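Changelog entry: the Lipoprotein-releasing ABC transporter permease subunit record was regenerated in this release. Current contents:
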Amino acid sequence: MSARGHAITNYAAFIGLRYSFSRKRNRFTSVIALVSMLGMVLGVTSLITVLSVMNGFGGELRGRILSLVPHGFVESQSGGISEWQPLAKKIESMESVLAVSPYISDKVIFANGRTLRGGVLTAIDPAMEARVSRIPEAMISGSLDSLAQPGFSVVLGSSMARILRVRVGDKLEVTVPRLTVTPLGVFPRSKRLTVTGVFEVGAQPDTYQAYISLPSGQKLLGPRTGVDGLQLKTVDLYSAPQTMLAVAASIPANMKVKDWSQTQGSLFQAVKMEKLVVSLLLLSVVAVAAFNIVSTLVMSVAEKRGDIAVLRTMGARAGGIMAIFVSHGLGLATVGISIGAALGVLLATNISAITIFLEDLMGVKLFDPSVYFISELPSVLLWSDVIAVVAASLVLSLFATLYPAWRAARVAPAEVLRYE
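Regenerated structure tokens:
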């Protein structure tokens, strides 16, 4: 760039920033400028904080649900898998597969007196299941190993146990979608089960999931000698789709595979969509602040018409005048965005401590674990979110300065100086 170009750029930035932070401005213009800066601070702070909280909720949801959900499944396209042991050994010998567990699953109705609740009853081998999921760690009463004891035992999610009003040692009735033919007629198949354990992962499975032993499931949900499918745990949760493709290539063609992203993917896609929608809504706060910058610059152009005329007579070009007012607007916006980003990062990294402080101050529990599954507000700050918010705010601010700057460049110096 030539020396003349550098001079134009330097004087435009200098004058523009001088206009932004000068104490000799019109009082009303100063108030509008302050409001636009505060709008930027509020918008950027809110965006960074809310995105961090949503990241925290997404992480909590992913960790809680995926602790219970296996990484992958292998099922037969023609019904159950009768000889599942050799297939399980073959799959488990693969490099990316850590463990395999059989299962039988069906939808049932649980009843305790007049209280009914629909749910999913899954028959498992407790020892093998412990290798593919974290159910044993989620037990809050009883144990998963109790399913291996003789008799028909069941382990329930905590929310379901609360709804059915049962505890460890209580009995409940389960009705399965099978029919029993007797001399008196055809009746739905039902069985009385003993509650031997309650688990809690702090997510939706607590409300519908129940487990029984594999032999009990083969009798109750059958009769059958095989299983519905195999559950897999892979080396890495996020590479499970690629691992399941490798598994599909090494097993018989009549078997189908799926991974957790297919069974739970819609839930996490909904979380991502919610984050995007909330981001766009909060970005409207920044957009309103940007419109305030337009108002500030329009008033500033009207106030500085004499200065513009003098600069034009001294040789300043239209591009230089535009650069002055673009610098003027971006100076205001940059201060607001910088303060907002700093406050947003500070708030996002300390939101849990702030929540606890407010709870102690007001004597109220804001997040009841029995209702929200969490005891404090989770927050995960991603610097990519901070950069995206700052960049989007700067772009909106830049667009907001263009029209007033263009109006300033069109001021005719002769017409202004005629009345001076």
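The chain has two domains: 3-63+268-417, 71-259.
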